[in-house]
Write a structure and sequence with these properties.
Elements lengths: L4 E6 L3 H11 L6 E7 L15 E2 L5 H4 L5 E4 L6 H12 L4 E3 L2 H6 L1 H11 L3 E2 L10 H8 L4 E8 L2 H13 L3 H10 L8 H4 L2 H15 L8 E3 L7 H9 L2 E12 L2 E12 L11 E9 L2 E8 L3 H16 L18 E2 L6 E9 L4 H11 L4 E6 L8 E8 L4 H13 L4 E9 L5
Parallel strand pairs: 1-2, 1-4, 2-3, 4-5, 5-6, 8-10, 10-13
Antiparallel strand pairs: 7-9, 7-11, 9-10, 11-12, 14-16, 14-17, 15-16
Helix pairs in contact: 1-12, 3-5, 7-8, 13-14
Bound molecules: NADP nicotinamide-adenine-dinucleotide phosphate.
């Protein structure tokens, strides 16, 4: 019998085919690929898989007498991937997955099976692709108290925002370009809505703070409403716009958000461009660190999967979390920290509109630090105006925005973004 751990791989797509190729090349010395599964047995995948058994039904990998570890790279929140992972854990077979959607939605039952049964369930590839952030939080920062964790967790959104900034593209054109280059799915909804970044944040937060993953605890706003004008206004404030996921400790618990924010150009997150991801972590006694790298793609994601396979082959596999989700005690808070805000609106080009808008902001407790107004061009009925506020409570901002939106005769297209302030 081989002294290598025997891998059954489900899914031979973008990530799976690269994982298969690397395993067959002997990239993980103590692991060998013995069986694979995909929908189409005859599809050319750029790798010679004849040394591995092909099974049509991925569930057969669980009962396969030669398979010790199941690698799930099919994807999807439910369905085949979930039933495969559950069956493997029930049978005591360690699992490696890149499937953040499944983990975020089913963390509680999967933790019962993995933590309860002490069966490794490794998921480095599920968050920030090739960046080893799970290992960093779990092992590298083991003796720290994490205070704040934030980052760029979605390469599609970052690519779109970067291209709007550098090439002056509209949101639609930048999305189209991202799709053509393979950085965005044909259906980009999960990415541009911020949900994908939210799923990753939920998983990271469970690990970093012990908060039960729950998408309802995360305030999620996507990038669909960002216009080329916002990118240009941000530049006037020496800033760029990034979709930032944040999980931060406060007196009320851990606050979670995923939203587009204004980031000063000199901040390290502003330097993270195109499809790259980055995670910044503030911890005590460590201080602050930032990890940056490719957050998606076959090679980067396979790198993280292979690291998990290597850990399991070396006897270092760990269950999903350190406790079951049911035993996680840290609470989530919905109280957003006070922030400065960027408020953009289109104001009717008529006397009194600016006075009315500023009056509404003042009446709702929003005080203005800066105003930028574009001059009118022939035929414009509305002018874009941007306010930068002083520190403002979210509740005050929300009531001011809703009051502004009711003044449809003087303004429309209202958008507010927090201004990201680094604590260091
Ligand atoms: N791609 C990335 O950059 C990236 C980054 C981070 C995480 N991930 C995660 O990695 C996982 C895989 O992503 P991917 O991009 O590699 O997906 P993909 O290219 O769509 O590949 C999916 C694979 O699953 C197989 N499959 C689908 N349904 C199946 C079924 N019922 N039975 C057996 N096989 C089935 C497909 O078979 P056929 O090839 O025969 O159709 C295909 O080989 C997902 O959880 C994803 O979220 C991906």
């Amino acid at each position: 019998m081989s002294d290598k751990i025997r891998i059954g791989l489900a899914g031979l797509g973008t990530v799976g085919a690269t994982v298969a190729a690397r395993l067959l090349q002997g990239a993980v010395p103590h692991a060998e690929l013995v069986a694979v599964s995909a929908r189409d047995a005859n599809k050319q995948r750029g790798v010679d898989l004849s040394a591995a058994d092909f099974v049509a039904d991925p569930q057969e990998l669980v009962s396969h007498h030669n398979v010790d570890v199941v690698v799930e790279l099919i994807g999807g929140e439910n369905g085949v991937a979930l039933s495969l992972v559950e069956a493997a854990l029930k049978k005591g077979k360690p699992v490696v997955t890149a499937n953040k959607a499944m983990l975020a939605a089913h963390a509680a039952p999967l933790s019962e099976l993995s933590v309860g049964g002490n069966v490794p369930l490794a998921f480095e590839a599920a968050v920030a692709g090739g960046i080893p952030v799970i290992k960093t939080v779990r092992e590298g920062l083991a003796g720290n108290d994490i205070h704040r964790l934030c980052g760029i967790l979605n390469g599609t959104c970052n690519y779109i925002l970067s291209r709007m900034e550098v090439a002056g593209l509209s949101f639609d054109d930048a999305l189209k370009e991202a799709q053509e280059k393979g950085f965005a799915e044909a259906d980009p909804t999960l990415d541009v809505s911020g949900m994908d970044a939210g799923q990753k944040l939920a998983i990271l937060s469970a690990l970093a703070y012990g908060v039960a993953p729950d998408m309802d605890n995360i305030s999620v706003t996507g990038i669909e409403a960002i216009m080329a004008a916002d990118i240009a206004f941000a530049a006037e404030f020496d800033s760029v716009i990034r979709l930032v996921g944040l999980a931060e400790r406060s007196g009320y618990g851990i606050y979670h958000s995923v939203e587009p924010v204004l980031v000063k150009r000199k901040h390290p997150l502003a330097q993270v461009v195109n499809e790259l991801n980055a995670v910044s972590i503030s911890a005590m006694p460590l201080g602050e660190i930032m990890l940056q790298g490719p957050g998606a793609g076959g090679g980067a994601t396979a790198s993280a999967v292979l690291a998990d396979v290597s850990d399991i082959a070396s006897g270092f596999g760990r269950p999903l979390f350190d406790s079951t989700v049911a035993a996680m005690k840290e609470s989530a808070s919905k109280n957003a920290p006070a922030s400065e805000f960027y408020i953009r609106l289109a104001l009717a080009d008529q006397p009194g509109s600016m006075a009315k808008a500023t009056q509404i902001l003042a009446e709702n407790g929003v005080s203005i630090e800066e105003v930028v107004q574009r001059s009118s061009e022939a035929g414009d009925s509305h002018l874009p105006v941007v306010f930068i506020t002083h520190q403002t409570e979210k509740a005050a901002l929300t009531s001011a925005l809703s009051a502004l939106e009711q003044q449809s005769e003087i303004c429309n297209s209202v958008l507010a973004l927090p201004v990201f302030v680094d604590e260091v």
